[in-house]
Amino acid sequence: MIEIGKFQKLEVLRFTSVGAYLNINEEASADDDILLPQSQLDSDLEVGDIIDVFVYRDSEDRLIATVNEPKITLGQLAYLKVVDITKVGAFMDWGLEKDLFLPFNEQTVRVRVGKEYLVALYLDKSKRLCATMDIYKYLSDDAPYKEEARVRGVIYNVNEDVGVFVAIDNTYYGLIPKSEVYTDFKVGDKIEARVVKVREDGKLDLSVREKAYLQMDDDSQLILEKLEANNGILYLNDKSDSNTIKLELKMSKNAFKRAVGRLLKEGKIKFIDNGIQLIEEE
Question: What's the rounded Cα separation, in Å, for the pair 93 and 101?
């Protein structure tokens, strides 16, 4: 059976003025023969040869073969660039003559021309190849990473109640839990993160922050920079609301308290009413 959206080995059955017709073998139904266009024929190709081709639908919705390699195949994930947006959806460059359709209902955010997005390739109900940004079911839960490993991935969904969903290596499930989200992440952002936990289901919990004792240096420096930018005063202290601290400094209240404690010990700041103040060096 010829499979749409995949590379497969097909036999050359006959040549015509428009190209060569291929099928699984000469005993297959002629109704299933697929055209390999004249422009893609090798001069040495003969009837009976077996060639490796990718099968998809052309602009007239007919099955067609190509020796060109698309940027994505069925069930895979890849970054593809949006080249056009129409009333029915967007179209993406996937390396073939006919652009790949990304329906509106398969977009997790509205896409823009010229931008790249992580998508999977699937067959719709009409057996047409389409792209989808809803990639959760295409990811794997058998990542080879252990706790504290460094990983890279792309954000494919942001849920305020759960956290930030990450496709690690464009292959594995990753999640930055809500409690670890201190930055305004957006779909399509590429990140580096640390594996905090390997869950029983094989999925990975992530953090873009270092362990507390390592992160404290960066947090302390950030507070100093904020103080310098605000005339030496920040109206935040250990009694401030955690959401206020998160909004202002992109860190947790505990991280803030640790960093402030270090700066106090080093004599770089002091407490004032409702906040902290930079101590001027003499």
Answer: 9
Residues 130/101, Cβ–Cβ less than 8 Å: yes
Q: Are the C-beta atoms of 47 and 26 separated by less than 8 Å? A: no
Domain that holds residue 55: 7-66
Q: Does residue 29 carry a pLDDT above 80?
A: no
Report the chain's mean pLDDT, rounded to a whole number.
88
Name residue 99's amino acid: D
The pLDDT tens digits of the residues spanning 65-123 come to: 999 999 999 999 999 999 999 999 999 999 998 999 999 999 998 899 999 999 999 99
The pLDDT tens digits for 107-164 are: 998 899 999 999 999 999 988 999 999 999 999 989 999 998 999 999 999 988 999 9
Q: Where are the beta strands (DSSP E) in the chain?
A: 7-16, 19-23, 34-37, 50-57, 63-66, 77-85, 89-93, 100-103, 116-123, 129-132, 150-159, 163-168, 172-177, 190-198, 204-207, 233-234, 269-272, 275-278
Q: In 86-132, where do the E strands start and end?
A: 89-93, 100-103, 116-123, 129-132
Dihedral sign (CA 170, 175, 181, 187): positive
Query: Do residues 34 and 2 touch, judged by C-beta distance below 8 A?
Result: yes
Count of domains observed in the chain: 4
Task: Identify the CATH number of the domain in which residue 85 sits.
Answer: 2.40.50.140
| CB-based burial label for 34 (10 Å; 0-12, 13-18, 19+) | buried
The number of helix segments (H) and strand segments (E) in the chain equals 3, 18
Residues 58 and 87 in one domain: no
Per the domain annotation, does 1 fall within a domain? no
Residue that terminates a domain, selected from 119, 136, 153: 136
Return phi, psi of residue 113, to 5°. Answer: -60, 135
Phi and psi at 229, nearest 5°, equal -80, -15
Same domain, 260 and 231: yes
